[in-house]
């Protein structure tokens, strides 16, 4: 492992680490990717890791992240992990590059406009109300798998707000996306050296998952072709009316949207309930704010301006556990980052998980403190906090995700308390998104109204 911090003048990259260290890094890439990233960040703001025949250049500083994601974004295409995910997701908005990506973004951007998202608030509130009713039925009962509940919620919201479709009948979606993520990460950490045709259990599961996702996407598209499109502005309708009859492209877009549109918000909510349980005083403030702002009614879009502490909690959750914990890129041409030469074809990885813990920009960075994001509190530089990415590829669904998460925390905190099963160990799992490994069993209790 070698640091690439120092002089701004371009110079040759120092030699890689010795073979013994390389083996240890490869093992950690399999077993504890988050520790690898945070330990590497201690060596400098730009760090080279040599793993077998490959080198990864880790970017852990806002200035260098801005260079890769914004200033010279055209030179950096999607990289390790997302490159492997393309086998299942196809060339959707998450994995495509260049003109293909620009065309897709133009087609889908109107669906995510703030005015349209505001009009969807009533639908989101209804889905959150249904979630709260399900949780109330479990008060003082057996533990429930809260991540399963959050996934069901986020899929319901995604279906009704972005696709104008009910997804409740597709119960295999979560299982199939897990198969895709497992295989994508396996190929990434094995550097693509394990042939995809080998009948390994993981790869067999991947092929089944890919087939299932394609089936679901094709069904959604075919159903919409048989319906009246006039006056509809959802994603499927826009794909159909965009002038292309390319069914494969539509399938790619839908599969990508189904994954990105539910996984990140569900993961964020899981981490939020874990941290609130660990910090009861935060739960009490959430409850008090929800009672004051909402009373007994459902939340509305206008309430977001008043749910300031709730939004601060979500922002702090995403600082500690950014759903997009890694932003992988491939340098198309040789570049210089922080004075170091980056050869063409190099894997360059911006690490929000490490930047969100950078001691140069965050006081006591491991502490859960929503007060960092309170109104009027000075914030660090823009690129020190990028839970939705940054630059041209900034996540188009950030407004919907924030609204959804705020509504869930406010309604649940107002009426209920969620508590982890005593002794249950919560462990992060760094896949395409940052999630809780093995789920999050919690018990549901009635909240005494303040």
TrEMBL record:
Molecular function via GO: heme binding; iron ion binding; monooxygenase activity; oxidoreductase activity, acting on paired donors, with incorporation or reduction of molecular oxygen
Xref: Gene3D superfamilies: Cytochrome P450
Name of one Pfam family that matches: p450
Cofactor field: heme
Record: residues binding heme: 395
InterPro entries listed in its UniProt record: Cyt_P450, Cyt_P450_CS, Cyt_P450_E_grp-IV, Cyt_P450_sf, Cytochrome_P450_Monoox
Matches recorded under PROSITE patterns: CYTOCHROME_P450
UniProt KW keywords: Heme, Iron, Metal-binding, Monooxygenase, Oxidoreductase
The organism's place on the tree of life at top rank: Bacteria
Protein family membership: Belongs to the cytochrome P450 family.
The protein's name: Cytochrome P450
Source species: Amycolatopsis xylanica
Species classification: Bacteria, Bacillati, Actinomycetota, Actinomycetes, Pseudonocardiales
């Amino acid at each position: 492992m070698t640091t690439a911090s120092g002089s701004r003048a371009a110079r040759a990259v120092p030699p890689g680490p010795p073979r013994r260290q390389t083996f240890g890094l490869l093992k950690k890439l399999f077993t504890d990717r988050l520790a690898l990233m945070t330990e590497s960040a201690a060596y400098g703001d730009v760090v080279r890791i040599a793993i077998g025949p490959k080198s990864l250049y880790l970017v852990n500083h806002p200035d260098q992240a801005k260079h890769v994601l914004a200033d010279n974004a055209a030179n950096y295409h999607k990289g390790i992990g997302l490159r492997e995910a393309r086998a299942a997701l196809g060339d959707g908005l998450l994995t495509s590059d260049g003109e293909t990506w620009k065309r897709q973004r133009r087609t889908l951007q109107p669906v995510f406009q703030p005015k349209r998202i505001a009009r969807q608030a009533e639908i989101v509130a209804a889905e959150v109300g249904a979630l709260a009713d399900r949780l109330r039925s479990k008060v003082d009962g057996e533990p429930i798998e809260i991540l399963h509940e959050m996934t069901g919620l986020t899929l319901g919201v995604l279906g009704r707000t972005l696709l104008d479709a009910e997804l409740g009948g597709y119960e295999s979606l979560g299982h199939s996306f897990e198969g895709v993520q497992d295989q994508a990460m396996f190929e990434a950490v094995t550097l693509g050296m394990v042939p995809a045709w080998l009948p390994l259990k993981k790869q067999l599961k991947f092929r089944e998952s890919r087939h299932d996702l394609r089936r679901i996407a094709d069904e959604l598209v075919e159903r919409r072709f048989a319906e009246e499109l006039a006056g509809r502005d959802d994603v499927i309708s826009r794909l159909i009316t965009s002038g292309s009859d390319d069914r494969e492209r539509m399938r790619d877009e839908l599969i990508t949207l189904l994954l990105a549109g539910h996984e990140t918000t569900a993961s964020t909510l899981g981490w939020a309930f874990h941290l609130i349980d660990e910090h009861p005083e935060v739960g009490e403030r959430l409850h008090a704010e929800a009672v004051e702002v909402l009373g007994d009614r459902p939340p509305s879009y206008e309430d977001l301006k008043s749910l300031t502490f709730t939004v601060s909690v979500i922002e702090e959750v995403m600082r500690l556990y950014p759903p997009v914990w890694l932003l992988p890129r491939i340098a198309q041409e040789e570049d210089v980052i922080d004075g170091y030469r980056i050869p063409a074809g190099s894997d360059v990885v911006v690490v929000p998980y490490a930047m969100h813990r950078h001691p140069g920009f965050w006081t006591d960075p491991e502490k859960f403190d929503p007060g960092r994001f309170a109104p009027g509190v000075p914030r660090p530089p823009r690129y020190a906090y990028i839970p939705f990415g940054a630059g041209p590829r900034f996540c188009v669904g950030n407004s919907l995700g924030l609204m959804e998460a705020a509504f869930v925390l406010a309604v649940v905190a107002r009426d209920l308390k969620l508590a982890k099963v005593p002794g249950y160990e919560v462990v992060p799992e760094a896949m395409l998104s940052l999630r809780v490994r093995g789920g999050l069993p919690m018990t549901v209790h009635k909240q005494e109204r303040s």
